[in-house]
Design brief:
alpha+beta; about 250 residues
């Protein structure tokens, strides 16, 4: 028990501090759990392995979050139905406000239906001279996130939670995507014959990324939300942690 408490404290840290404290803890960790804490005993090697396993899991999440950029250009490798359904399985596990679970999903992986969806999406408003991905760079799959108003008319942030979770699942498979909220909703509703009791919330555009996206820490999104350089690399500025933390 004591080791697990210390493990949680270590995992709440990050980067070099975590590695430094990991070495210190591994060197001084007690061979056995104190009897007043638990009847279980653990060898130093087992404790160290627990730490390394949890650290590896934490680093995997950090890596996934870093890789999970908004990709808008894709290789034309088809996505299968099973891949999209697998992402929805992840969404099914996500929390939902009041546990109403009102979201439904329409998936597309066939070229004709993909093309029909594409014409109702708007891309990267900050790139004024870019009309969107060329025909040989378009998404090879879509998940349309719908809100079932028969269950509730207030979806809170459920759509954002499931969208991020599905994109992390895609990144884990070497895929990528973009949450698209700029949608011709009436047109998409007519094209896909979506009944009126479903609100169109977001569209996930998916595929294997064909572009490089770089995070920038020395530019503010107040200057420009994102840009592409002369090598067609997409740059995304992020605010520093000191700007995010507030104190009153």
């Amino acid at each position: 028990m004591l080791q697990h408490i210390v493990l949680c404290e270590l995992l709440a840290q990050s980067g070099d501090m975590l590695k430094h404290n990991l070495r210190d803890f591994a060197a001084t960790a007690p061979l056995d759990t104190p009897p007043e804490t638990s009847r279980m005993t653990a060898s130093r090697a087992a404790v160290e392995q627990d730490i390394l396993t949890l650290l590896a899991d934490a680093m995997k999440l950090n890596e996934l979050l870093t890789r999970n950029r908004s990709y808008r250009r894709f290789h034309q490798e088809p996505l299968g139905e099973d891949t999209l359904v697998g992402l929805i399985e992840l969404a099914r596990l996500c929390p939902s406000a009041a546990n109403r679970q009102p979201l439904k999903y329409l998936i597309s992986w066939q070229p004709d239906e993909n093309a029909a969806i594409f014409q109702h999406l708007r891309w990267a408003a900050a790139l004024k001279d870019w009309p969107g991905p060329a025909e040989d760079e378009r998404p090879t799959g879509y998940i349309v996130i719908l809100g079932d108003t028969r269950i509730t008319k207030n979806f809170f942030c459920d759509d954002g939670i499931v969208a991020q979770s599905m994109l992390l699942g895609a990144a884990e498979q070497g895929l990528g995507g973009c949450m698209v909220g700029s949608i011709d909703r009436p047109g998409l509703r007519d094209t896909l014959r979506i009944p009126d009791h479903f609100d169109i919330l977001l569209v996930l555009a998916l595929g294997r990324p064909k572009e490089k996206v770089v995070i920038e820490f020395d530019r503010s999104p107040d200057e420009v939300p994102y840009w592409r350089d002369s090598d067609d690399v997409h740059h995304v500025p992020k605010r520093p942690i000191d700007e995010l933390l507030v104190r009153f």
